[in-house]
Amino acid sequence: MSKTNTPQTKPSKILISDDNEQNRELLEAYLLDGDYEIEMSVDGPSTLEKVKSFQPDIVLLDIMMPKLSGYEVCQRLKADAATHDIPILMVTALNEMGDIEKAVAAGCDDFLTKPVNRLELTTRVRSLLRVRHLTNERDRLLAYLAEVESALGPRGTTKR
After folding, report:
1. What domain count does the chain have?
2. Residue 64 within a domain
3. What residues contact residue 37 under an 8 Å CB cut-off, 6+ apart?
4. CA pair distance 29, 104, nearest whole angstrom
5. Which percentage of the chain shows pLDDT scores above 70?
């Protein structure tokens, strides 16, 4: 399996949020071949806290969890300017069209139904991480260009 990162970059951070320990362990095992730093959470509130402290590049989020559902967690993350760009991959046993529509309405970026296929999971994670890293690079370049334009002033002359 190809690695997500080059040697000079940090591993991508993945947060796996599921109240079922076996599900968390299975997802982690499926992702072990990648160059990832993986953390776990077991319910909605701990997921929101872990997102703040761990700052993941992607969240794998179960829908049916205690205290706060995956839908609610997703809505909160997408409503917060600090976390709205983090891709969220809903991973759930729910598979009715209404469940998928509700997940999309909550702001999830992709949706996988349990039992999870390893190849499908790893492919979607790599794809969402690629988009995340490209978006981050674009934002860095735009900030740099804004600094250069600000330093140059009118007609490309350097401010003195």
Report:
1. 1
2. yes
3. 10, 11, 12, 13, 14
4. 27
5. 91
